[in-house]
Design brief:
The protein is about 60% helix and about 0% strand. By secondary structure, it is mainly α. It is elongated, with a radius of gyration of 37 Å.
């Protein structure tokens, strides 16, 4: 007599099952459930062999309190052999396999959907699909499709298995499901095989490439990788109703991805992409300068100085340049871009002016004086004098702006040079005849005190004696605004 030992079975009264004994319903259901959860395909085959035909359907389709059948439990466990054995059991006993596979539990999930959501085995998903599971099944409670669940859970191998099915439907909702980069690349690449113009098609009111740029720029980067320049140019140029392009959206949300796309491209291609402007004339380069100056720095580092000069000089109509935008928001990036460049290049960039006559150097003086200090460090005094003497439309020099906005930076610049340079800079006058030293005197006066503390008496006398057209000296300004500073200067 052949005997089958059932190990670790939660059926207390059964330890041996003999071939001359038919299984009754309750025992069969419990055995099948145990086979499903413990991963024992041989046990499924034993149950199938010794079940009477009229009980065969019950041992596979009997539900628990949540409507889950043993087949569903097997799908959740991800054991493809057990799932296949149960399907074979159904087929051998005349059960309609498709109806069993596509039957939902109380939550509206089929065996396929349970296998996907638990994500333990792509092989298990393949077995279900091969035997008739509907690849486009929808969870009744959430209205999520199989693809959407695979995307949400990030099950890459299962996603590939679903996409290989000839009848799979790729909906817009599946395409816009937030997921990891790899899943998004796989799904979108498959969809592009069916619909080459997908990236430009409207999805939820905007071109699909815009959605990718906003939510998964790394995926968009990988999708266009290896494509020809014409294709990439076309995708990055897709614009919405406000003229905001895909390249703008990448610059705004994932500048690194945009930098990766442009890496290795020739200067002409890079110039075209960075120059794309929206309806207000705001270029991609402007947006990078504002949000991700380090990425712009990396892009420019790969190209020659002429390319850098062209990009940094791109100006919004009647407004400021890319270099201005860097000076306002990313002074350190502008400093690093200019580092190592010859004096002529640096002078050209710092001298670029906006419609109000405000230079890039003025912008640095206002927003990041220390970056300007670092740029001037190492340059000769003639270069520094030239930059600090640039005046705006109202006659205010870069040195005046430093005195007002970042006196400590001006102090460091003067301290690092000779007395002639210091006298020249502190003596620069605005349209009203007030010198830089006058401006420093009104700014608490501590920076002027520190500058003069390092100089000889003749230098101190010269600076304190500088007078406005009305006869107001720097010393009188100090007396009015910071008598303590004047006292310390004289005491020294």
């Amino acid at each position: 007599m052949t005997q089958f030992r059932i190990v670790s079975l939660s059926v207390p009264k059964l330890s041996i099952m003999s071939p001359n004994r038919s299984l009754h319903l309750e025992l069969g259901v419990q055995l099948m459930a145990h086979a499903a959860t413990s991963g024992q395909p041989d046990l499924v085959r034993v149950i199938s062999e010794y079940s009477s035909s009229h009980l065969a359907v019950y041992v596979v389709t009997e539900c628990d309190s949540r409507g889950n059948t043993p087949l569903m439990h097997a799908a959740m466990s991800g054991n493809s052999e057990v799932v296949q054995a149960m399907i074979d059991h159904c087929s051998e006993n005349g059960v309609a396999v498709a109806s069993i596979l596509n039957r939902p539990n109380t939550a509206g999930k089929t065996a396929l959907m349970l296998a996907i959501s638990h994500g333990k085995s792509a092989d298990c998903v393949q077995v279900l699909l091969t035997n008739g599971a509907d690849p486009n099944t929808i969870v009744a409670s959430s209205w999520l499709s199989a693809l959407e669940v695979a995307m949400r859970e990030g099950h890459l191998d299962i996603l590939r298995t679903l996409l290989a099915h000839p009848d799979i439907h790729i909906s817009d909702r599946a395409l816009t499901t937030i997921s990891g980069r790899d899943c998004t690349v796989v799904l979108t690449s498959k969809a592009l095989e069916r619909e080459p113009d997908l990236l430009s098609r409207l999805v939820n009111g905007n071109p699909f490439a815009h959605w990718l740029a906003d939510y998964n720029g790394g995926a968009l980067r990988d999708i266009v990788a290896g494509k020809d320049d014409g294709f990439i140019r076309g995708i990055l140029s897709i614009a919405d109703q406000e003229g905001f392009s895909v390249a703008h959206r990448l610059a705004q949300g994932n500048g690194v991805a945009l930098g990766n796309i442009l890496a290795g491209k020739d200067a002409g291609f890079g110039r075209e992409i960075l120059s794309i402007a929206d309806q207000e004339g705001f270029s991609v380069a402007h947006l990078l300068a504002q949000i991700n100056g380090v990425t712009l720095q990396g892009i420019l580092a790969e190209k020659n100085e002429e390319f850098g000069r062209e990009i940094l000089s791109i100006a919004r109509p009647y407004w400021y340049s890319v270099a201005h935008r860097l000076a306002y928001d990313n002074g350190e990036a502008l400093r690093d871009i200019l580092a190592g460049k010859d004096a002529g290049f640096v002078r050209d960039i710092l001298s670029v002016t906006d419609q109000d006559g405000t230079s890039v150097a003025h912008g640095l003086a206002q927003h990041n004086g220390m970056a300007l200090r670092d740029i001037l460090a190492g340059k000769d005094t003639g270069f520094g004098r030239g930059i600090l003497s640039i005046v705006d439309r109202d006659g205010g020099s870069v040195a005046h702006w430093l005195a007002e906005k970042n006196a400590a930076a001006l102090r460091d610049i003067v301290a690092g040079n000779d007395v002639v340079f210091g006298r020249d800079i502190l003596s620069i006058r605005d349209q009203g005849g007030r010198s830089v030293a006058h401006w420093l005197a009104t700014d608490i006066g501590s920076s002027l005190r520190e500058i003069l503390a390092e100089k000889d008496d003749g230098f101190v006398r010269d600076i304190l004696s500088i007078a406005t057209p009305e006869g107001h000296t720097v010393a009188s300004y100090l007396a009015e605004f910071n008598g303590v500073a004047l006292r310390d200067i004289v005491a020294g």
